[in-house]
Design brief:
heterodimer; A: alpha/beta; Rossmann fold; 11 helices; 8 strands; B: 4 helices; 76% helix
Chain lengths: 299, 96
Amino acid sequence: MKPQSRFYIGKGGVGKSTTSAITAVHLARNSRDILLVSMDPAHNQRDIFQQDFSEKTRQVNDYLAVKEVDVDYWIEKYLKDTEKTIKRTYSYESAFNLQNYFNVLQFSPGLEEYALLLAFENIIHTFEDKDVIIFDMAPTALALRFFSLPFITLIWLEELLKLREKIYAKKEIISEIKVGRKTIEQDKVKAKLEILIEEYGHLGDHFTSGATRISLVMNNDKLSFSEAFRIKKKLMDIGINIESVLVNKSESRVIPDEIRHEFNNQKIALFPFSSKNILGYQAINEYLDENSEIFAEIQ
Amino acid sequence: MMPVLKTIKEKIVSAFNVADDVMRGKAVETIAYEVGELDNIFAILVLGAFIGIPSPPIHITMELLPVMEKELGIMLEKVSTAHDPLGDLFSVLGID
């Protein structure tokens, strides 16, 4: 059984990091093996837990580990791996001529969300033994690009494969007329495209399957509500459903009508406002103790 | 068979083979040119960033680049002969 992936998304500043940290500690207190991953390039978990985290996983207690995804590390690793493959498959001269491009590629737009996707794939394969992996996501724009990346990539790959198949069929005709039979070497590009389509298909399925749960974090204010509504719509367009809505810093114990009406298919949880700063592992535990009735329902 | 007749037969077979090769070559010349162009279009789509044309998300370029040495070569060659595109086409179509 694969671990469940829970993503905390929402507008910048609504408390994605705080709610994900509180949930992670809450689940760990219930003896569930949790990995909390910060996917926001501007990491906050180190400030919330008042501990240094990095790409290397660090145990906070027996059931809770925290990790920060280092986007630059993943971009650099990916470029180096590609460069190595090119040096292996290309002639020396061609590989040498490409050298300069690699120095520029690390600054290409789109690599940031791809690096997050690489890190995500690595995490779900490396931490298969965890019960739940909680991803504290970057603010809306980057998070939406991250979720839509497999689907956009698939559109490109499928169109490229169609063109490649057309080229391959014509090469077969040439071979048949010239030498009397269809003997052309396997098209490496076509084979690679087919592999990539399978990989991105799996990734897309992972996002839309029950293994992925999206929690939309918001505050009870107009701006946050409008953005939450847009996030819901954008995710629905790519077939991803929001499982729950977390209203953070809630001063009331009653779910506002507007939120209940808009998110009638989602579980809604209220994270009560705290007059104290929730900073440090101890403070998170105190917050959970103070609101134990509410958190008893959160699984 | 007399050696002279054998030689004549071999020459006829050889001439026939040459003619066969030429005809087969002629038959696929246009389609081979089309394949070259399609290869080039494909390369531009995927690797267009190298010659200043918008391309797919950069990670697709990066994933396919290691298996596209030939296409990259074709594209760069096409760029270097881009000053005379019609000359290339006319020579395939046999227009002087």
